[in-house]
């Protein structure tokens, strides 16, 4: 994985990329060399606050984050998009992991290595506007742009129908994507899905100065810690503090505030009318002690999706893939391999 060959990437486009990787020419295209990093092995584009994280799973996955050139809508420009790539490509269709609202691929820190151990080809992606991509020249971060960016990444690198996994708001991202690009998705896995909110509602009408003030509050440690305490069941305070630092690491990216306001004022995701259009087989995974999204909404989704089943995870909160990774990985693996 030291280098990625991109024979389809025209050399001329490199002038429009803010590149943190070293690029070299070779016969037939461009070679994008791995980011490297300091003595600690972290990619240099990650915020320096990554050093303070203690969770070994988060540290290990952070070291594997890469940036790949992905074309953005209505432009010949490419942005360097962050993700974790699989070490091995398999014959089976890959599992592609999205994340919750205002989060990053580090959400999968505990489940990702288990997916690899199970023999699945897994990708953990950062949705446009969140995570650790290079958005110095900020593209639109509305739902349509997020959808197109995900499609271009899939079209350029994954190229096979995928098992698309969306937790919380990531479930809305997944539903919006599969309805627009059904050829790209074989199956869906939705974890504690948050799909019935009608976008960002009145927040979309806030004056910019008020929106920026609200987003600044969203970044604060106390608010993130409170959300973390709601998301998990009975974890020690020291671990909750550390996991809060993991969950807000991407907020230190220089473009984060602008991207979040851009998403907020765009209206966000409203996929209620799309749910019954999903044709793919879908697995809903539901944490029985979810304090953020009601289990009743998961039941409603089960009945509205044309081809869905549900599995409940006992003693689990909203981020089931973090606090019960072995159970979630087994459910995903069994579902992915089922005919």
UniProtKB/TrEMBL annotation:
Serine aminopeptidase S33 domain ranges (all copies): 95-323
GO function terms (MF aspect): catalytic activity
Pfam families: Hydrolase_4
SUPFAM superfamilies per record: alpha/beta-Hydrolases
Gene3D superfamilies to which the protein is assigned, alphabetical: alpha/beta hydrolase
The name this protein goes by in its record: Serine aminopeptidase S33 domain-containing protein
């Amino acid at each position: 994985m030291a280098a990625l060959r991109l024979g389809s990437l025209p050399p001329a486009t490199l002038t429009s990329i803010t590149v943190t990787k070293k690029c070299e020419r070779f016969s037939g295209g461009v070679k994008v060399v791995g980011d490297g990093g300091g003595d600690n092995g972290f990619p240099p584009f990650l915020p320096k606050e990554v050093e303070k994280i203690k969770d070994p799973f988060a540290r290990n996955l952070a070291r594997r984050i890469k940036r790949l050139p992905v074309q953005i809508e209505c432009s010949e420009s490419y942005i360097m998009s962050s993700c974790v790539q699989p070490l091995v490509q398999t014959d089976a269709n890959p599992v592609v992991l999205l994340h919750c609202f205002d989060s990053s691929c580090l959400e999968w820190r505990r489940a990702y290595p288990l997916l690899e151990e199970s023999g699945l080809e897994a990708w953990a992606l950062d949705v446009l506007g969140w995570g650790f991509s290079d958005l110095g020249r900020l593209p639109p971060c509305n739902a349509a742009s997020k959808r197109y960016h995900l499609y271009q990444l899939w079209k350029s690198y994954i190229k096979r129908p995928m098992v698309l996994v969306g937790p919380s708001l990531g479930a809305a991202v997944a539903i919006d994507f599969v309805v627009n690009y059904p050829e790209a998705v074989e199956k869906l896995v939705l974890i504690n899905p948050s799909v019935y909110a009608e976008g960002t509602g009145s927040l979309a009408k806030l004056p910019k100065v008020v929106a920026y003030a609200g987003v600044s509050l969203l970044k604060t440690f106390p608010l993130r810690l409170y959300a973390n305490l709601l998301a998990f069941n009975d974890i020690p305070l020291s671990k909750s503090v550390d996991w809060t630092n993991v969950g807000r690491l991407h907020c230190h990216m220089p473009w984060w505030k602008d991207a979040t306001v851009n998403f907020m004022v765009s209206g966000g995701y409203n996929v209620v009318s799309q749910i019954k259009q999903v044709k793919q087989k879908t697995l809903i995974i539901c944490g029985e002690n979810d304090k953020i999204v009601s289990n009743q909404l998961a039941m409603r989704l089960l009945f509205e999706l044309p081809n869905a089943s549900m599995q409940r995870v006992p003693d689990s909160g909203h981020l089931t893939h973090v606090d019960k990774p072995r159970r979630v990985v087994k459910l995903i693996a069994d579902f992915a391999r089922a005919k």
